[in-house]
Specification:
Low-confidence stretches: none
Pfam family, one: Metallophos
Number of strands: 16
Oligomer: single chain
GO biological process, one term: lipid A biosynthetic process
Protein name: Metallophosphoesterase
Largest sheet: 6 strands, mixed
Order of helices and strands: HEEHEHEHHEEEHEHEEEEEEEE
GO molecular function: metal ion binding; UDP-2,3-diacylglucosamine hydrolase activity
Domain Calcineurin-like phosphoesterase: 43-202
Strand order of the largest sheet: 1-16-2-3-4-5
CATH architecture: 4-Layer Sandwich
Helix content: 25-40%
Length: 266
């Protein structure tokens, strides 16, 4: 009987340590894509689903991002949690990001929408000159590349999507930011070259070969859970995020942020 208890305690300890590594020690996911619409490399950092995660080494996170030297930083929602009352920790992160680049864009996630202080948090972002794209599109010149950046609200419908897409110059490289991939996938018209999302957390718990067990809005064994997906005329990328919601549990799915480099097609 004692042997079984010792075995149980040993396995439990290993699982606790493994889970701590998964939720605390982030990795950098690096992706290289090609497009004929860029003339120079476009260097992007995507941060999503941070959920005010105080377990992460923030200084190391900033150092990693600074070393990347991104042209653009995209915050694709749920940067705070719906339960977050004191978001000063997250604002410290934002302050450090603004020292790296002035081109930071944010879209609402469902947790900011649910948080009673969501609007106030949004004002704090704007005060730091973070560009909040709430069903808006902007045209920017980045490293001599003409870029369309579109930001969708979490609850956008097809009518709202069509309105946001009005006036888009399809000759420019077009990036669409949407916290959740679920709604845009119903409306896409193929004008987007790259779609960046989060929300799924990659399922948090993943199984070999199978992938995510469950994802919000997609149910069990979701198709669009994590990583790159080739759509008809677009590429969808879903980042699994730097934080967790509901339970601080991850399996085969370490917290991360992503560095995406867009290179000219040769």
């Amino acid at each position: 009987m004692k042997i079984k208890i010792y075995i149980f305690l040993f396995i439990s300890t290993i699982l606790v340590i493994y889970n701590l590594i998964q939720i605390r020690f982030f990795k950098v996911n690096k992706i290289v894509l090609n497009s004929p619409k860029v003339s120079n490399d476009l260097n992007i950092v995507q941060i999503t689903d941070f959920h005010n995660n105080k377990l992460i080494n923030k200084k190391k996170l900033i150092r990693e991002i600074k070393n990347i030297k991104p042209n653009l930083i995209f915050l694709t929602g749920d940067i705070i949690d719906f339960k977050t009352k004191d978001y000063s920790y997250t604002l410290e992160l934002i302050d450090s990001l603004t020292d790296i680049t002035s081109k930071i864009y944010f879209v609402w996630g469902n947790h900011e929408r649910r948080n009673p202080q969501g609007e106030r948090f949004m004002e704090e972002l704007k005060n730091r000159e973070v560009i909040v794209l709430d069903n808006k599109n902007v045209k920017v010149n980045v490293n001599n590349n003409k870029i369309n950046i579109i930001g969708l609200d979490f609850f956008i419908d097809e009518k709202g999507y069509r309105k946001v897409m009005e006036g888009i110059d399809e000759k420019n490289f077009t990036i669409l930011l949407s916290h959740s991939p679920n709604r845009p996938l119903r409306y896409l018209k193929g004008k987007e070259d790259l779609i960046l999302s989060g929300h799924t957390h990659g399922g948090q718990v993943r199984l070999p070969i199978i992938g995510a067990i469950v994802s919000p809005g997609q149910g069990y064994f979701p198709k669009y859970d994590k990583g790159l997906f080739k759509l008809e005329n677009s590429i969808l990328y879903i980042d699994s995020g730097l934080g967790n919601s509901v339970l601080p549990i991850r399996f085969l799915n370490r917290v991360q942020f992503t560095n995406i480099i867009i290179k000219k097609t040769l």
